[in-house]
Amino acid sequence: MSNEWWRGCVVYQVYIRSYCDANGDGVGDLRGVISKLDYIASLGVEVIWITPFFKSPMKDFGYDVSDYRAVDPLFGGTQDFKDLLDRAHALGLKVLIDQVWAHTSDQHRWFRNSRQSRDSHMADWYVWADPREDGTPPNNWIGQFGGPAWTWDARREQYYLHHFLPSQPNLNYHNPDVRQEIKNTASYWLDMGVDGFRLDVAHTYMCDKELRSNPQRNADEPWPSDIPHSHPLGHQKRIYSVDTEANISLIEEIRAHVNQWEDRCLLAEVGGDDPEKEATTYVKTDKRFNMAYCFGLIGSSMARDDIVNTVEKVENLVEDGWMCWSIGNHDIKRVISRVSPHYRDKKGLARYLMALGLSLRGSFCIYQGEELGLPQAELGFEDLVDPYDIALYPEHVGRDGCRTPIPWMKTAPNAGFSNTTDKTWLPIPTEHVGLAVDRQEKDKASTLNAYRQFIAWRKTSPAMRYGDFRFLDSEGDVIAFLREQGDEKILCVFNTSDKEERWAYEGETSFDAFKEINHNIDVQGHNISLKPYGYGFFRV
Alpha helix locations (H) across 193-301? Predict the structure, then answer.
């Protein structure tokens, strides 16, 4: 596995704006991340993924890049990142950086050139189209932020495509010059020493060259997991706007380029109408992405059927590919508030979610704050800064509430996140302060120490890191499965509900519990009683 370090690893996502503010301006930065790398390493994770820190107008908080090779002064400078890379590597941590290659900012020099005229040097570096005869956009595609996915530009007298904000125009990957420039960008960071990339919205790289309209979704067809039910985009089947067949050839071209550097990794975010199917397609064969994650669990309430259906579908499709599971990130309501929001034992719930995610076949990504059991921050409309939350308010409020700053010290100003006397970029909720790192460090029974203990145990088990996966028969709200590698076989049992459940193991052999990592279970022979959100691991 030496050249496949990503297989079975645990990734820790750092949302840089909210991790640690070293210069006192109320926004997290690279020096702040450096100051917390020892903490990250202490969790036992092998990899960190850092969200965009590149030059940007920040209309989408860094996911609108205006220069792929420049560090935005808000976060520091190039030397700060090099220092971060050196320190992380000294601690044994691999570093993935977020690359937003589907679109740029409208302030990027490429787009400023492209929009000057239809004859400019970069005229077709973006997706431009003439209006229909009645002046309306060329097709019916809807953007992720609501409204048409097209914006009119008077200079060219054409529309340009943007799957997200109008200030995020989509690159045209049908143009080989664009593909080459993106590969040049990859080379710049790989030469600097990064261990790979997390690739934002990789399913949106290439649209249909003919720009055909999407068909309507029938009422009996499943709603896509990456779209809120309050969003009109779900009424379309996105067969022409995203996840096109051309995407596969582009992915393979990018992978072939990255393969010129040894031991690098590509982790892709994949959405779309059938994200589990697309994600597994994007990792099949050894010519595409190393790993991908999708929204089947991230976008769900984690009910039993959500878990079983998503995992079973991936297991049936993934073949020789490899998934990176996640139950939360910076784009969705925090998981502990999505699952049984009225359940009172939040610490027990956090432990259950941890154990379940880290037990699935694949790698696993922890979103910062999950190791503390942070719930969703309840923010008022006046506190919102995210254009997506604002556009869909009040039916969808999720991104700002999961992005609030990390509480480091219970009694320090701004919970130790920042020493600014002004307000931080998002408020730090009072309920988070009581879950601060310094308080949990001292509590052996804390969520933080449960994560450390479980990750350390997982590293000792080839079956849990790399092994095969097989569901066992179960009823009610119980999930049971086996992880197997060589002679090692581990039985994993979970109660996915807030009521007590029972399950009987029908195997012929005896089994022994790993007492130090089980939670809320009682065992009598082969009969297992699981209290709400209880779980058990057994060597069989």
Answer: 246-258, 275-283
Which two structure tokens, joined as six digits, stand for 151?
Answer: 């914006």
Task: Indicate the pTM of the whole model.
Answer: 0.97
Please pick, among 29, 64, 72, 200, the residue that the annotation labels catalytic. Answer: 200
Indicate which residue of 269, 276, 386, 400 is catalytic: 269
SS3 content of the chain, % helix, strand, coil (to 5): 30, 20, 50
pLDDT digits (tens, 9 = 90+) for 418-441: 999 999 999 999 999 999 999 999
CB count in 10 Å sphere of residue 256: 11
Question: Pairing between strand 478-485 and 10-14?
Answer: unpaired
CA 64 to chain centre: 17
Contact 388, 400 (CB under 8 A): no
pLDDT tens, residue by residue, 73-101: 999 999 999 999 999 999 999 999 999 99
Residue type, 486: G
If pLDDT is split at 50, 70 and 90, which confidence band does 1 have? very low
Name the nearest CA neighbour of 476 among 503, 456, 457, 450: 503
Q: What's the sign of the alpha-carbon dihedral 272, 103, 406, 459?
A: positive
Nearest to 74 by CA among 95, 55, 49: 55
The owner of tokens 């309306």 is 136
What's the pLDDT band for 471 if we cut at 50, 70, 90? very high
Both tokens of 324, joined, read 């990176």
User: Which residue pairs, CB below 8 angstroms and at least 24 apart, start in 373-376?
Assistant: 373/336, 373/346, 373/347, 373/349, 373/435, 373/447, 374/334, 374/336, 374/407, 374/432, 374/435, 375/334, 375/336, 375/337, 375/346, 375/431, 375/432, 376/333, 376/334, 376/336, 376/337, 376/338, 376/401, 376/402
Task: Supply the DSSP string of 157-218, one letter for each residue.
Answer: TEEEE-SS-TTSPBB-TTSHHHHHHHHHHHHHHHHHT--EEEETTGGGS---TT-PPPPBPP
- Spell out the residues 6+ positions from residue 80 whose beta carbon is closer than 8 angstroms to its own: 29, 30, 31, 34, 71
269 is catalytic: yes
Would you list the DSSP string of 127-157? -EEPPPTTSS-SS--B-TTSSBSEEEETTTT
172 contact partners, CB below 8 Å, separation of at least 6: 124, 125, 126, 127, 128, 178
Tell me which residue of 540, 533, 535 sits closest to 505, measured CA to CA. Answer: 540
Quickly count: other Cβ atoms within 10 Å of residue 290's Cβ. 22
The CA-atom distances, in angstroms, between 219 and each of 177, 222, 246, 306 are: 42, 8, 29, 20
Q: In 3-state terms, what secondary structure has residue 250?
A: helix
Check: CB of residue 189 under 8 Å from CB of residue 198: no
* C-beta of residue 259 within 8 angstroms of C-beta of residue 224: no
Q: How many CA atoms lie within 13 A of 330 on its CB side?
A: 25
Question: Would you call 298 helix, strand, or coil by DSSP?
Answer: coil
Sequence-distant (≥ 6) Cβ neighbours of residue 177 within 8 angstroms: 122, 125
